[in-house]
Amino acid sequence: MRDWLHHIPAVHELQGHEQFPILMEEMDVDFTKLTQQIKDALNLARASILNGSWHGAIPGSDEFIYEIFQLVKSSTAKQLDYTLKRVINATGTILHTNLGRARLSDKAVLHVLEIAQNYSNLEYKLLEGERGSRHSHVESLIKELTGAEAAMVVNNNAAAVYLVLRALASGKEVIVSRGQLVEIGGSFRISSIMEESGARLVEVGTTNKTHLYDYEQAMSQETAIVMKVHTSNFKMIGFTESINTHELIQFTQRFENVIFYEDLGSGALYDLQKVGIGEEPVVRDIIDAGADIVTFSGDKLLGGPQAGIIAGKKKLIDCLKKHQLARVVRVDKMTLAALEGTLIDYVRGEQGVKSIPAIRDLCQSVDVLESRSAHFIGKLLGLSSDYQARTVSGTSQVGGGTMPEVEIPTVIIALKHRLFTAEQLAKKLRADTQPAIVARIQKDEYLIDLRTVSIEEEDLLLKALLQL
Ligand SMILES: *Cc1c(COP(=O)(O)O)cnc(C)c1O
Asked: pTM, whole model, 2 decimals?
């Protein structure tokens, strides 16, 4: 074995080997990086020889050198591979938080690309040639789409809630119904955010019932905000009662200097009730009803990038923009570009809205899914005898903690493989294919819902299924 160690080639020998420049070119790395990788591989081989776990070729042979270069190649490829990878979402859950929530529209993506690759007027007024504000870029679009007097954008909706409470209610009281003290996604609790913000939470009512007189009794000199949390992530059923937004706004307006604030969570700009999906209020209606301030996410039903949108009365928004914390939670230019692209899709009207993937996928009809699924199965069975496939009716979910009670009728492709169980098939499609595919499993069938698979992705999906 000592002899083996003596025959391990020196680094400079491998640097002079014909494979060295070939690998440098193939892996697109420089001389120093490849040299480091070779040193690491040789050290690994040396350690393996010493502890008796080396099962490769004998040092001194051409095969040994070949194996070292193979080792270098695979370890370098692994290091240069992204861990954040594209996934085909075949689960049918549109705003799947684990899979990145909303995918962006073409317009949003192209705008991000241009703004990210170049300088921009992010904080610069081109007409005047003076310093400008990054808030200005999407503000007028949000005003146009919601009817609000003013608006600003922060990093996400959790940050928006925090900024509102911190800037407008720190050291004061915020009244919230007990039935709305929700936890979202296992990590976002209104009560905890409230505590962090320095605002004092005044809970009113019981879990299932809150009356107007509960709010009335809680009102004091210390009250800064009456807050409503849109409980989009769970539904209470049975013996429940809560005050609707209109009543609560009218009530709040009786008190001077008390703000009505609703955290809408999802914040729909497009009326999905119109197409028979859920009961999510549109932001404009809440603003029209007289809400002083609302907050909502950019990447839930809106279908844009991760962002928190704050809209409402100009006096309050101005105060938020000036707050120190606004700098801490500010959005970057790529987010603003993505949001601007998405909002312009909304302004364009019905056709534009349907170019936003989240909305398009939500609105896809069962008929279309039926024919896409049948076509897909036809292709798959025509090219492979490894599968059994059938279509079954099922449901898709909105996801992202939005409208969990809503089940959207869909068509499912249920697959069985000749050799693999559904679990094995799922694992292979997640780990061994590129892009990875994530779908559902039920009773040893692999379930594909094409609702969240775009037409362009169908071929990739087919290819992955055929490759196994
Ligand atoms: C989702 C949600 C949030 C958090 O929004 P993020 O954009 O994920 O930070 C806050 N409030 C409500 C009511 C929500 O539904």
From this structure: 0.93
